[in-house]
Amino acid sequence: MNALLIEPSDFSPKVVFDPAKNLFELSGESRPENTSKFYVPILEWLQQYQNVLYWEKDKFGQSQPKTFEFKLDYFNSTSAKFIMDVLMQLDKMAQDGFNIKAKWHYDKRDEDMKESGEEFSKLLKKLPIEFVEV
Amino acid sequence: MSKEITEALEIHQFMNDRNIVMSFMGELTHQVTTSLLKNLKEDMHAANVDVVTQKRLYGIIVECLDNIAKHWIAMDIEKVLGRSSPPIFMLSRLDGFYIILTGNHIPTDQIDVLVKKIELVNSLDKKGLQDFYRQTLAKESPLERDNAGLGIIDIALKSGNKLEYEFRPVTKDVSFYIIQARISL
Q1: Between residues 146 and 165 of chain B, which touch chain A (CB distance below 8 Å)?
Q2: Buried b (16+ CB within 10 A) or exposed e, B71-96
C-alpha cells in the first residue's frame, strides 16, 4: 500500500504514514483552513490500511506491531474532533485484534497537551496510549 | 488640527492607556489569522511570557478568531445592514492579565443558545469543563462538525477565568456579540 505523506505548513501538521518503513507519525500544528478536507483523506487512508491488514492477517497471520506517534504542538477544537476520529479508527483496529498502539508525545511544560491525550484515551476501548514526555 | 488627526490621536491615546498589544478590524480570513498569530508568537516571545501561558493564550485566540470567521461566512453583513461592519479582535495586557476580546455580528435568534452555552461553561470548574469537553467530543458526529461547542469549552479551560459577554441589538434580526476571555500572566 502507498504511503500517505503530507508536508507540514504553518497551520497543518506533517503526516507520515508509511507501512513499508513501519512508520506512522502525525506532528506539528493543526488548525487547517478546511479541517474536514485535511483529515478525511487521512481517515480514508486508515480505512484502506485496515483492509490491507485484514488481508495480510488472513494470508500471513499476525503482522508486526505498529505504533502511531502523535507529536502535536497545538491543535484547535475542530481538529480535536478529527484527531479523535483517527484514534477511534486505530481503536477499532486494536479491538479487531491487531497489534497497534499510540504514543502521545508532549512538551514537559505543556500539561494541557498531556491532559488532552488523557481525555482522548478515556474515550477509547482497546487502543493503548503511551504518554511520552519530551 | 483636522478632526481626523484629533480622532487618530485619541484612538492612539486610548490604545496606549489600555495597553492594547494587538488589534484588528476587518475580514478575518485564514491568511489574516495566520499572520496575526505569527505576530502574537513573536510578541509573547519578546515579552518573555512563560510557555504554558503562551500556549493557552495562542489556543484561546485561535478559537476566538475561528469563531468570528465561522460567523463571517454564515452572515452577509453588508446585505443585512446595507453597509460594511467588519468584526473586531483586540488583545491587551493589563493588571496582570492578557485580555482577549472579539466582537462580531450574529443572528439575534442565536443569542439564547449562545448565552446558555457560555453560562454553562462559566458554572463549571476545571474537572467539570474536562468532563463536558469529553462528552461533547464523544457525541459529535462527523455530520455535526460545524456546530460550535468544543471551542467555547476549550476557551474556558485555557482561560481559567469566567468569560464575559454582551449582546447589542443592531437591527431586529442582527445583534453585535462581544466576548471577552482573560488569562493570568
Answers
A1: 150-151, 153-154, 157-158
A2: bbeebebeeeeeeebbbbbbbbbeee
